[in-house]
Amino acid sequence: MVYDKGTRVCRAADPATCRYHRSGVFAKDAVEMYFDGHEFWSSEGRAKAVAVKTDVLTFAEEFSSRISEGLSDGSLKLDDRRFVAKASALADASMRALAQRGSVSNAFFGDVAYGALVRPVLYQFNRLSPSVKVDDNVFDAESDVTPFDRSAGSMLAAKGGWVNQWDDGYYGSWKDDVATAHFQKCGPAVVRPPEEDSWESFAGTFADDANHNHGMTAEAECNCGALKGKLRVEGNFTDLTRSLVNDYASKVFDRFDR
Q1: Which ranges constitute the DSSP H helices of the chain?
Q2: Which of 6, 40, 235, 254 is positioned for an S-S bond with 46, CB 3.0–4.6 A?
Q3: First to last CA, the chain
Q4: Helix (H, G, I), strand (E, B) or coil at 160
Q5: Per-residue pLDDT tens for 209-240?
Q6: CA-to-CA distance for 237 and 151, rounded, in angstroms?
């Protein structure tokens, strides 16, 4: 690893903010995010992955340390559009270094797609960006939002999928299942009023046009700050609105019934 976190006692109130120890914190949390949300092909495949969880953590620590060092020396910047490409290169370098040192078992390569760990690790570094209070957070009782917007935001928090912030989803799914599972587990700190959304996706090599998709999207953030981006539900906007109106009306009538 770039820095041996065991050689220095952390004195930060939150180790996630400590430049020396954050890589260890982020690695552990990224591995948990991975195992909570990654869809394994079979129960046997998951069991094999769990058996080499120590190796998974070893890779995540090596990778996180390299990112942390890059942010400290300025060779990496979170707002650089090349950040993901540079981080992916560090992931490859981390795996090669571990393989050369014999720090991971052969089972790690066959049973765990280490590339799937890249995104959970990168999400963790969002925690370095301070959260900004917004005036239209539907989960803030004092925010100036309409009851309808609160219902819409609550619906997205409960049923929405997390939009992959590093891929537009044109050639695959826009939804990041690992991040979605984390959001449900961690809980919403912020969800802003949703807006109608549309996007295109690949319809096939011989298709005359792309698929046109519709839904609702809202800016959101989870409680730990690892996820800062967008939630989305897919569907016909009229049907989604009708569902929300019915849900809101039922809550109003419930109050009268009491």
Answers
A1: 22-37, 43-51, 53-73, 83-101, 106-111, 118-124, 147-159, 177-186, 237-257
A2: 40
A3: 61
A4: coil
A5: 777 778 899 999 999 999 999 999 987 767 77
A6: 15
Residue given tokens 């050639």 in the structure block: 171
Phi-psi region of 43 (alpha: psi -120 to 50; beta: other; left: phi over 0): alpha
Cβ atoms 220, 165 nearer than 8 A: no
What local confidence, expressed as pLDDT, does residue 137 receive? 96
Q: How far apart are CA 165 and CA 142, in angstroms?
A: 29
Do the Cβ atoms of 188 and 223 come closer than 8 Å? yes
Q: Determine the Cα–Cα distance for residues 148 and 222; give it in Å rounded to an integer.
A: 22
Task: List the Cα angle 97/16/226 in 5-degree steps.
Answer: 90
Q: What are the Cα distances from residue 98, in Å, to 13, 41, 55, 105, 106?
A: 31, 26, 10, 10, 11
pLDDT digits (tens, 9 = 90+) for 49-60: 788 888 889 999
Give the sign of the dihedral formed by CA 60, CA 63, CA 67, CA 72.
positive
Split at pLDDT 50, 70, 90, the class of 156 is: very high
User: Which of the 8 DSSP states describes residue 114?
Assistant: G
Q: What is the pLDDT of residue 1?
A: 40
Parallel/antiparallel/unpaired status of strands 211-222 and 161-162: unpaired
In angstroms, the CA 227 to CA 233 distance is 17
Query: What tokens were used for 242?
Result: 């009708």
One-letter identity of residue 258: R
Q: Which two tokens mark 25?
A: 């914190």
> Reduced to 3 states, what is the DSSP secondary structure of residue 233?
strand
Q: 217 is written with which tokens? A: 């999207």
